Amino acid sequence: MRAVLLAAGEGKRLWSHFKRPKPLVPLLGLPLIERNILILRECGIKDFVIVTGCYVDEIRGHLGNGERLGVKIKYLHNADWKLGNGSSAYAFHKEYQQDEKFILMMSDHIFALDLIKSFIVRAKDIKEDELLLAADRRLEEVYDLEECTKIKHKGNLAVELGKGLQDFNAVDCGLFIGTGGLLEALSKSIAGGAYALTDAVNLMAKDGKVKLHFIEHFWIDVDDYKSYKQAERLLLKSLVPPKDGIVSRLINRKVSLRITKLLAPTGITPNQITFISFLTAAASAVSFALASPIVGGLLAQFTSMLDGVDGEIARLKFLKSKYGEMFDSILDRYGDFLIIVGMAYSWYSTTGQVAALLVGAAALMGAPMSMLFKEKYRNVFEQPFISEVHDGIMRYFAANRDVRLFIIMLGGIFNLLPATLILLAVITHLQTFYRLYNVRKLSQ
Fold it and tell me: Could you give the CA distance from residue 242 to residue 397 in angstroms, rounded to a whole number?
């Protein structure tokens, strides 16, 4: 499918804060319209038609032909953009191809990736004279409900839409899969002097031609500065993966998300952050080796926090890559190795005890086991291993990287390096054996 993005309006409410066209307002490092292009690209959409109006030169100048973003962009200018968004949507009839289904989206609405993916799957259910509309019936969760276009529906069919509708049970998310039927309805409504997109949708709704897809993920219309800040919060919250360990979820993310918010507008890449995290781990190891356990412990914990930032930036700005995932995993292992070696060296150089070398070796052996097990589990069972789900009672004794580095921080602060290394060796191997036991039961 092709995607049609409406970017014709003036967007006065954000002008006072950003002094630029609303589609080009940056949100955590990406302009609104660019974020929508990239999220659709993630769903396999590569051909775009952008309908311009008020800021045609600025938008074309920024996006160009789309090559920089890995897509193709064609522009349609709507000289009558002031009449309403229906006239802008109808501009696509010049490019429409017979029996084509297309995505129609407002350039200033933000959607979760999973929302878009699940919506596109529904395209196969739409006939040539129908329309699919993303709707949210979780009314208690809708941001600024008063400003939303309301929907009265019966089952999965829209009955009526309107901003001032009093009897409603869902709201319009501003995301459509259109057909020739929508363009015909737009032509009729415009001929009758009704220029809003909602007017055409209501014509189709009267004939039972507007199907609804009820969404389950976040979305927001970035209409003013308050909704802009809410969009920031929703995007940052969406960066936290379900597989997060307990320390990462309760401590690290509270810091890493702040760092991500600060770095998002810059040009720093996820791989650069990964390397900085590794250097922090190396500094932690040196601090331990030089008998500065407090500094070593604090740097180890900061390493853990930075370890989340690279992935957050990658997801936030659509910079994920297979190489980046490998690079992060390998440098994490090297970083862990250096920190444990630094701790064992400090213990041995202070006491001369051979136990320091033996315990250090055991801790080194156990350190990569959690990640190795998860990777093998994903390959063998074709699903991710989530500690909160699969570890049972052992999730409270987790040996994930965030937990290990947190223990190392405590060991450094209280100068208990021998006890810390012993604990690391015990919990990493105990967790591995426990997981192996559970997998053996699953395989029988």
Answer: 18
Across 351-383, b (16+ Cβ under 10 Å) vs e yields eeeeebeebbebbbebbbbbeebbeebeeeeee
Residues 398-436 as b/e (b if ≥16 CB within 10 A, e otherwise) read bbbbbbbbbbbbebbeeebbbebbbbbbbbbbebbebbe
At residue 151's C-alpha, the angle toward residues 84 and 210, to 5°, is 80
| Contact criterion met (CB below 8 Å) for 22 and 33 | no
Whole-number Å distance between alpha carbons of 177 and 367: 49
Q: What angle do CA 328, 248, 373 make, to 5 degrees?
A: 55
What letter does residue 241 receive in the DSSP assignment? -
Residue with tokens 């309006």, as numbered in its chain: 9
Task: Quote the pTM value.
Answer: 0.91
Q: Are 260 and 316 in contact (CB under 8 A)?
A: yes
Give the domains, in start order, of the chain with CATH numbers. 2-223 (3.90.550.10), 239-443 (1.20.120.1760)
Smallest Cα–Cα separation from 394: which of 382, 406, 386, 402?
386
Which residues are bridge partners to 219 per DSSP?
111
In contact, 6 and 87? CB cutoff 8 Å: no
Q: What are phi and psi of 252, to 5 degrees?
A: -60, -45
Q: What are phi and psi of 436, to 5 degrees?
A: -60, -40
8 A C-beta contact, residue 117 and residue 43: yes
Calculate the CA 220 to chain-centre distance.
14
Q: Quickly tell me which residue has 């049609």 as its tokens.
A: 4
Instruction: List pLDDT tens digits, range 52-93.
Output: 999 999 999 999 999 999 999 999 999 999 999 999 999 999
Q: pLDDT (tens digit, 9 = 90+) per residue, 154-199?
A: 999 999 999 999 999 999 999 999 999 999 999 999 999 999 999 9
* Residue 255 CB contacts under 8 Å (≥ 6 apart), including other chains: 305
Question: What percentage of the chain's residues is helix, strand, coil (to nearest 5)?
Answer: 60, 15, 25
Please give the helix or strand (H or E) that residue 338 lies within, else none. Answer: helix 322-351
